[in-house]
Amino acid sequence: MDVKFSHIWNVSVEEALQLQTTLSRLVDIQTPLHLDNIHLIAAIDVAYNRENTEMFGAVVLMQFPELKLLSNFVTRAPIVRPYLPGLLSFREIPAILPVLEKLSEPIDLFMCDAHGVAHPRGLGLASHLGVLFDKPSIGCAKKPLVGDFIMPGERKGSTSPIKLNDNLVGYVLRSRENVKPIYISPGHKLTPEDALRVVERCIRSYRIPEPLRVAHQMANRARRVMEGKVSGIRIETFEE
DNA sequence: GCGACAG
DNA sequence: ATCTTGTCGC
Ligand SMILES: [Mg+2]
Q1: Which of A26, A53, A76, A158 would bridge A174 by S-S if both were Cys, CB 3.0 to 4.6 A apart?
Q2: How many other CB atoms sit within 10 Å of the CB of residue A87?
Q3: Residues A139-168: pLDDT tens digits?
Q4: Rounded to the nearest whole angstrom, what is the distance from the C-alpha of residue A159 to the centroid of ligand 1?
Q5: What's the mean pLDDT when you consider all of chain A?
Q6: Domain count, chain A
Q7: Tell me: the pLDDT tens digits for A166-218?
Q8: Chain B bases closer than 7 A to any CB of the protein
């Protein structure tokens, strides 16, 4: 899979903010998505080691709408930037970029554990990734970042709009009855309603949509398996 | 100046 | 995000 736009990642905070503003002009949340043409979803998540020195990324390919796990790709990368609210994409995208560029499968849509346009400058991680690869993307976060909204009803399926400066940027969705809701916003190439529809169809029995739930598990599994190892060689330590 | 603040 | 066992409620 090739990127449409590419830019350096080791930039200063000021440059990162400027890049977001520039790239946000390319974001499209107007063009409707034809659900019938969506067959392959790539869900992405990243896990960290306890020392906060390494990231383990997972890209899970799931068949839609059957939600059948097709494949999983993992990566390992050093943490080079601290976490700053609003700049998450500059920290996590570099870790998974290598895998995505090597993928040959025809990805129809990205689902990310982050926000899309519900972001201070309209370019959350999901939007950033969507623009770079020129593909539809959805942001599905566990906590709000910006925007105004009221809590949806306690019943599964209840929703409430998220507004940012009078603009609709997403929906809060109660994916499970009496359980904290999730925050959905389009990343790129689909509308807020489309993003909500896709996520709703990805909810199986848990709060987190199946693709992201599995990606989260795979990222953590990769950490368990790989951390402590060096270039594929198992290192064992024994006490005196 | 204060509070908010994805992962 | 990560550190962690039991406990309460649906
Ligand atoms: Mg995550």
Answers
A1: A158
A2: 18
A3: 999 999 999 999 999 999 999 999 999 999
A4: 23
A5: 95
A6: 1
A7: 999 999 999 999 999 999 999 999 999 999 999 999 999 999 999 999 999 99
A8: 5-7
Asked if residue A224 is part of any domain, the answer here is yes
- Say if A103 falls within a structural domain: yes
Is residue A6 included in any domain, yes or no?
no
**3-state secondary structure labels for all residues of A154-200:** CCCCCEEEEEECCEEEEEEECCCCCCCCEEEEEEECCCHHHHHHHHH
pTM for this entry? 0.95
Question: Which DSSP string corresponds to A132-161?
Answer: HHT--EEEEESS--S-B--PPPSSTT-EEE
Phi, then psi, of A145 in degrees rounded to 5: -120, -50
For residue A192, give its domain range. 13-237
A160 touches strand C (CB under 7 A): no
A54 part of a folded domain: yes
CB-proximal positions of chain C, under 7 Å:
1-3, 10
CATH number at residue A202: 3.30.2170.10
